[in-house]
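Known limitations

Structure tokens in this collection are predictions and should be treated as such. Users comparing against experimental data should check residue numbering before alignment. To illustrate the layout, the record for AAA+ ATPase domain-containing protein is reproduced below. The input appears on top and the generated tokens appear beneath it.
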Amino acid sequence: MIGVDEVDRLKPLALEVLRDLHEESEVGMILLGLPGLERKLSRYAQVYGRVGFVHQMRALGVEEQRQILLEQVERISERRVNAREPLQVDQEALATMIRMTEGNFQRQKHVLMQIERIVQINPQVDVVSKEVVEAAREQLVYGRG
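Generated tokens:
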């Protein structure tokens, strides 16, 4: 299985390469893109004829976001070097991350990368607090303000 993100940004030649890859390898593909992707693909009959189904993703609920963020913080905790304790997350920090990222996976990924960086260079930090989240946000272009 191959997943391709931002397919809506691909040029026709790239779509043909994906079609050829699918034809030659018989590998399944998941094509992800912004709303309107189906309309764009419909202009390329050779590609569109191979689309099995289209599914529009809904925004994640708060509990789903909370679970994903907790799982990712647990992974960060497992990668910590010289850590005294497993990394914990306080509820205010979780609420801040959810509000800040609005369920956007890319934003979550970027915030978590910054949080990981902060806890790696500050091994005394055992709790992801609102202050840690805000410090991570300050490192992001969209996080300021």
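For this record: The domain at 62-143 is CATH 1.10.8.60 (Helicase, Ruva Protein; domain 3). The chain has two domains: 2-48, 62-143. Please report discrepancies through the issue tracker.
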